[in-house]
Predict the structure.
Amino acid sequence: MHWLLCVLVLSACQKETEQRPDGREPVTSLNVAYGTDPLQKLDLYLPANRSLDTTKVIILIHGGAWAEGDKTDFDSFVPELKQRLPGYAIFNLNYRLYANGVNRFPAQEEDIKAAVNFIFSKRNEYYISDKFVLLGASAGAHLALLQGNKYNTPLKPKAIVSFFGPAELVSLYNTSQLAALGLPQITGGTPDTAPEIYASSSPANYITANSPPTILLQGGLDPLVPPAQSELLKNLLQTAGVTNEYVFYPLEGHGWTGTNLQDSFNKIRDFLKANVQ
């Protein structure tokens, strides 16, 4: 009887060990909930041979004027980043979108903060380190810049990658006709009637000497987010003594493909290798 009990206990322990992930195998999991709203979901791509000490994390935040878009917009980025940054764990986020007066700012900001907290809380389960990088495009870059500069908890990211992200919403309202149409809806007012939300939602207002190293990628013909937004941020980072790189494509607009996009991925790789240790 004693012998049978030992066998059963040993068998149960072996099954538990076999079922518990150990970080050696790659893992892909789609639509993992980090909140209760249907849009509060993420896709995760964990590399093989992960470690709590060495496996860095890159978090992708899609664009879409805070009112549209989807994490699948970044599906094509995932293999490019895997190829250039093979040891990274990749998390691709959705977040609540503004629609018909619902989910105004700061709903999107709150979702990115919640997602970062969720991923951080799962470090032991996912076998990932606390070396986080935030990458976004357009509205997603704005959210990456806001999260990375405004918040120190649960961690300060090691770097930020901004594809043409808005940096200061009052000047964006004043210089971009398209932005001037959308910002009053998502903020609930204009810079004159709702100055607090414009100020609290502008990454430029949170730049300090402790801001993360930041790479800014900008098209010179962007009709939505003028180059002046990235240039403003570049100047603030330089004044604060923060490591930064400004990559300017004079003939590109609000997003690009082909050779220049490949160049962007290569510059991101080099920047992260140099600044995320």
Observations:
- The two ends are 55 Å apart (CA to CA).
